[in-house]
Amino acid sequence: SISSKLYKNGFEDIHSHAFNGTKLNQLILKDNKNLRRIHNDALRGATGPDVLDISSTALESLPSYGLEAIQVLNATSSYSLKRLPPLDKFSSLLEAVLTYPSHCCAFRNIRTEKQNLLLSIFDNFSKECESTMRKPSHEMLDDSVERNTHPFAADDQSSPYIYSTVFDDSEMAGFDFEYDFCQPKVLTCTPEPDAFNPCEDILGYSFLRVLIWFINILAIAGNFTVLLVLLTSHYKLTVPRFLMCNLSFADFCMGLYLLLIAAVDAQTSGQYYNHAIDWQTGSGCSTAGFFTVFASELSVYTLTVITLERWHTITYAMQLDRKLRLRHAVPIMLGGWLFSIGIAALPLLGVSSYMKVSICLPMDIETGLSQAYILLILVLNVVAFVVICACYIKIYIAVQNPELVAANKDTKVAKRMAVLIFTDFTCMAPISFFAISAAFKVPLITVTNSKILLVLFYPVNSCANPFLYAIFTKAFRRDFFLLLSKLGCCKSRAELYRMNYFSAYNSNCKNGGTATAPSKASQAFLLLSALEK
């Protein structure tokens, strides 16, 4: 056998049957910076190699033939080698030194399967031993005669027990009892996967794989419906409608992020180790990360503006000159869009990174700047939640006034506010708590378990907002049925909503023209209508 050491050559590919007729012990191809391809039949006609070194090359794939004899594979600094050939090709591999930790997950699974098979055979062996030892000696002899074997050796040179009395030859094929059971081969692979990229699929748990489809479809369908109805309505674009459009678009983007994650997980299920590098370092993960941070920050910002607008409307209900106009809301939301885009773009510019984990969240806190970035986002979200809670408490105190609103209306408004605050708290609290601890490098939850938060808590607002802020309101239902009437459906229901709207409008105009001061009933109407927008 020979050792072929082809260091630092200028060749770019290795042709078919390049080593025909040779018995290779080692094939060293390292430091060939331009080597991009080894033909699938390059090792055909050769014996071996036992050792293959392709470190510091530009290879994008390994040949499909001739890998069965390899015991040591060295592929360090082979950054273009992002996918491995079918793992059954590495039937003799004992040591692998690779570039990407995710590839070691594949070999870890192989090792586990081999060990499980050995343990299964050993368990069967123990049971058969017990059963055989309980038999009388003449039965053991009869059994052995039938199998053309002997339970005990005829001379001192033979093993005292022939294992074929317990197993068929097919069961013991390829196994040496003393070596495989007492000193089993253990494949070692480096670098080992870290805590941020454990050996699992993108979503980890199978129940999350089902839930994420239901949640992302709900978020996309709900918010798309709200956008469609509000943008096609022939009624005047008011400030609440304008803000609701922004909120629905942000939550729609969150649904797109979840859809992208779910689709890639379904596509790479069971073989994520072969797709991890392409996904996490490619444009797909960067796009998903940008979508989720942009959507999350724009949603939180818009929710805060909507809450402040409701509080302002109720506080200054009778002062029309202080009413928030569309010309005020547009620059406010423009600032929110610029802020959200800027925050989402920072990881693309090197502040933290979307490539750290498979779910494409900015979890990189290696530098002080990245750590400050994560803390800034979390602190702003906590401040926004406090502002929302404070505003709704003030709104409740205002609406609670018995001189303004009847008791049954008071209870209805209180329940509505409780639901709004609860959904915000459910979404923000768990994420913020664990993320802040992780930002200080004291993680209280693993990446695997954080995926439960990603699916069950992170998108709560995106699913609930279209219902709480739009679909469950009377104004939206009116616009919805009016839109359906244009398509030839629910015309009678739409006409009823249209008549009720004009009746209420004319009644308010008459009351406004005759009254010299706002009545208690009109004050109550304004307070409740602010919550119904």
UniProtKB/TrEMBL annotation:
Keywords: Cell membrane, Disulfide bond, G-protein coupled receptor, Leucine-rich repeat, Membrane, Phosphoprotein, Receptor, Repeat, Transducer, Transmembrane, Transmembrane helix. InterPro entries: GPCR_Rhodpsn, GPCR_Rhodpsn_7TM, Gphrmn_rcpt_fam, LRR_dom_sf, LSH_rcpt. One of its GO terms (biological process) is ovarian follicle development. SUPFAM superfamilies: Family A G protein-coupled receptor-like, L domain-like. It is a multi-pass membrane protein. Residues 222-469 form the G-protein coupled receptors family 1 profile domain. Its main location: membrane. GO terms for cellular component: plasma membrane. Gene3D superfamilies: Rhodopsin 7-helix transmembrane proteins, Ribonuclease Inhibitor. Pfam families: 7tm_1. The chain crosses the membrane at residues 210-231, 243-264, 288-308, 329-352, 372-397, 418-440, 452-472. It comes from the Eukaryota. The keyword Acyltransferase does not apply. One of its GO terms (molecular function) is G protein-coupled peptide receptor activity. It is found in: Cell membrane. The keyword Ubl conjugation does not apply. Belongs to the G-protein coupled receptor 1 family. FSH/LSH/TSH subfamily. Receptor for lutropin-choriogonadotropic hormone. The activity of this receptor is mediated by G proteins which activate adenylate cyclase. This is Lutropin-choriogonadotropic hormone receptor. It comes from Copsychus sechellarum. The gene is Lhcgr.
